[in-house]
Request: fold
Amino acid sequence: MIKDILLKGKIVALTGAGMSEESGISTFRGKGGIWERYNPAIYANIPGLSFTFIIRPHKVIDFIVDFYEPILNAEPNPGHLALAKLEENGALNSIITQNVDDLHTKAGNKVVIELHGNMFRFRCMRCSNKRKLDKKELTELLSKLEKNRNSRLAITKFFVPCKCGRRMRPDVVLFGESLPEAELKLAYKEIENCNTLLLVGTSGVVYPAAYLPAYAKERGKPIVEINPERTKFSEFADYFIAGKAGEVLPQILQEYSL
Ligand code: NAD
Reply:
């Protein structure tokens, strides 16, 4: 029974873009997703972005603003809040997320492993110093960008200065870049130590995050998947719950609290 599995506690949740869909952030590949408007072969990697920056800087500015806008305005949905409550009452050990929207932390979760970074955090391109900006600071940066849509200089100003003198870029993993090693190691360790892996809103098309469920399965960890659609994980998941994260997770929380 799914309830018995979950009641054993030590749950680790692996979350993807579907987790935040009910917070108003489209999944990249879903309807209305950003890859419908911007070709990922160009906009999701440094060479493509750099080339576009040289020939059409306004397109890069549009992309940055479009990418940030929903994330800046999003709030945790009932699914995020249920995971925070599950951590608070001791059932959930940690969250491993592919999301870059900061919503798990905003919801109150303390152990959040961000495999693909965080859009609110900037990282120095020389000394790797990191700095998190708040919504107000980012909104100001973006509005300056929008006002200067055709200026290459405006983009360089979006890359905030670091105390070492170089500039900082959003601390997110683009296509072709490596995942942060420490986070990935920690993710594997969390899976080794868990009783159950909960998969929420991830299609499993992005690697190496998509290896994690197989790693759990090999170690005999039960897998519970929550997704409105079946995915490549559904076949080997022990339980597939068809539904939205914001509806199913509060029900699980309720069951756990009984
Ligand atoms: P994906 O876009 O490939 O798949 C999303 C999955 O979520 C699909 O299987 C879909 O059926 C499911 N889904 C849609 N609505 C849902 C809901 N309400 N509840 C539960 N599931 C729902 O996403 P992915 O597997 O996470 O990989 C895409 C990459 O895009 C990741 O690397 C991630 O970093 C990035 N991304 C992040 C955000 C974000 O930070 N919010 C948003 C879009 C994409």
Remarks:
- The mean pLDDT is 92.
